[in-house]
Amino acid sequence: MGAYSQPFSRRAFVAGSSSFAALHSVTNMLPLRPLVAALQNDSRLSQTVVADKGFASVRKVGNGLYATISDSSKGLQTMCNGGFLAGKDSALLIEGFVSPAGAAFQMDAFRSVSQVPVKSAFDTHYHFDHSTGNSFYGANNIPVWAHAAVARRIVDTYGPMQGAEKSAVLAPLEKRVGESKSDLQKKHAQSDVTMLDHVYTLVNGNILSLPNRPIDPVKLPMTIDLGGLTATIENFPGHSGTDLIVRVPDQHVVYTGDLLFSGSYPYCFDEQATVSGWRATLRTFSSWDKDTLFIPGHGQICGQDGVTALSNIFDDLAAQAEKMHKAGLPADIAADQYAVPDSLKKYPVPVWGFTVGAAIKKIYAEQQFN
Ligand SMILES: [Zn+2]
């Protein structure tokens, strides 16, 4: 146990373990895949890890660059991926994670390799699994940077869940279960309820803490000099309307937040998610150096192959949406009728309504068929 890690309180532990079981049942969480063979020979990637607690491990991925990769099948302290950039003068810590324990784990890993002061922590977007651990940074006087809309979106989205009756929070999705017209629709709707139940539990098990350094996207890209290590913060559309990435152009390493899901279907449920914007973002990612190393928001570290895979998933979603649209199916029916083709069967669909269902509805709404 490191200097910043504290044992879980009993309440947090109980809340965490019950939602852990719920999440497990709904998302078919698989153990994290090992690095693909192509990356095992990449000289930037250390084969040994700096820290490993099961729920996450930290690996060196470049000069002063580290990736924190979560394995949610082993615990929900972090849930999303992150990492840190340690220059000669200062450091940037990426993600607040889902709990203060997750942020503390990464801080301990950082302190095991560097003693430079922390310039700031950074939330790639507002979603709970990237931000509900922010209070760790507050308690340690570390400023938190994020897209200027993140603070408001955290308050608007998760504020009302705190102290609310769970049944009231779940009611709109429960209603859809009751109104289901087929077993398939009912199954999908039920998994959405279980997911929201899980979000409710995690949000209520933590103290919301807001970024205190809003970054105006109009002023991006922004260059940060950490001392012999230069990174840029850039803004791209797609996943949440608040998505920022951290890129180290010299070393071809990119921390994408949830603009990249590696090895699964992507979460498209956010009211400000845009499939057309997201596909454009992926085209930009694919235009970068062929040896670019991507630290995705979820899943294993990948190269350009990971960007191609997610693009293929969106292509298929758009192609099937177009067929169903032409056949006269309304969006809410089409959302349940999408069929994962054999070529994409290796990519799990974590929670139908939050991933595939939401993507089909967005494609209809945006008229962004192939
Ligand atoms: Zn997200």
Low-confidence stretches: 8-15
Small molecules in complex: zinc ion
Strand order of the largest sheet: 1-2-3-4-5-6-7-8
Main CATH class = Alpha Beta
Largest sheet: 8 strands, mixed
Number of domains: 1
Question: Could you please say which CATH topology applies here?
Answer: Metallo-beta-lactamase, Chain A
Query: What helical percentage do the residues reach?
Result: 25-40%
Give the overall pLDDT as a whole number. 92
Number of helical regions: 12
Q: Report the span from N to C terminus.
A: 51 Å
CATH architectural grouping: 4-Layer Sandwich
Radius of gyration: 20 Å
Structural class call reads alpha/beta
The H/E string reads: HHEEEEEHEHHEHHHEEEEEHEHHH
Description:
Mean pLDDT is 92; it is low at 8-15. The protein is globular and about 60 Å long. The protein has helices at residues 10-27, 37-40, 100-111, 128-131, 135-139, 150-158, 166-178, 183-204, 275-287, 304-326, 331-337, 356-366, and strands at 49-52, 56-62, 65-70, 82-86, 91-94, 118-122, 144-147, 213-215, 222-225, 230-235, 244-248, 253-261, 293-298. It is α/β, with parallel strands linked by helices and 370 residues long. Strands 1-2-3-4-5-6-7-8 form an 8-stranded mixed beta sheet, covered by helices on one side. It has a 5-stranded mixed beta sheet with strand order 9-10-11-12-13, with helices on one face. Strand 12, helix 9 (275-287) and strand 13 (293-298) form a beta-alpha-beta unit. It has one domain: Metallo-beta-lactamase, Chain A (4-Layer Sandwich). The protein is built from 12 helices and 13 strands. The structure holds zinc ion. Zinc ion binds next to loops.
